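Open question from group meeting: does this chain pack into something compact, or does most of it stay loose? Before anyone orders reagents, we agreed to write out a predicted structure and look at it together. Recording both the input and the output here so the notebook holds the full record.
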Amino acid sequence: AQWFPRMAAYYDVYGWQHKQFLGAGEFTLEFGDYDVRITVPSDHVVASTGELQNPGDVLSAAQRERLKQARTAKKPVIIVTQAEAEAAEKARSAVSSGATKTWHFKAKNVRDFAFASSRKFIWDAQGVKSGDVDVLAMSYYPKEGNPLWEKYSTQAIIHTIEQYNKYSFDYPYPTAISVNGPVGGMEYPMISFNGPRPSKDKKTGEITYSQRTKYGLIGVIIHEVGHNYFPMIVNSDE
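Structure tokens returned:
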């Protein structure tokens, strides 16, 4: 994120919006359409603002079929399994070969753009209806995120959309994404980055999580996905 220059917005009342970004809040931006190609090592999976345009070039036939099934599924469908992610992490085939793939995304009427790329990503998805829009709720996380992320991340995205739709307006975008990363939480159009993970129990050595961590994850996803409504769509100046 924050990896390319953005045009400052112009207000008829206040003029140019040229405040510096100091990390304490976002500010009004111009909307635009994005057509982006991201070239990464061939064993990486990319999560991004927008819709994937070329699944045939970057996903296996089995993964494409899982993605199709996810659109009408009643629970999250695993697109890239933990076994597949662990195999990619272990082999690191693209490191030695130098092979790459280009992921192509398009996003309409958004005020920003962000993406994440990793060979460690597990990827799950489930469709949810938002007014007239079929939204694909998706989560991307490494094995270190399980068993917490596979249980709650995508479900928390869907819960957020359903509740915000009920009390404000219908989510208009085709995707809503939660990515596990080294942050507390941060949001961009259609994609958010959320930090909580399980930890190893000091007594048993088991990978587990507390109620605090569980609800911390659910809460931060609700918070960050909710930012799609404010300021990403309403475009409020915080």
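Observations to bring back to the group:
The chain has a mean pLDDT of 94.
The domain at 10-233 is CATH 3.30.2010.30 (Zincin-like).
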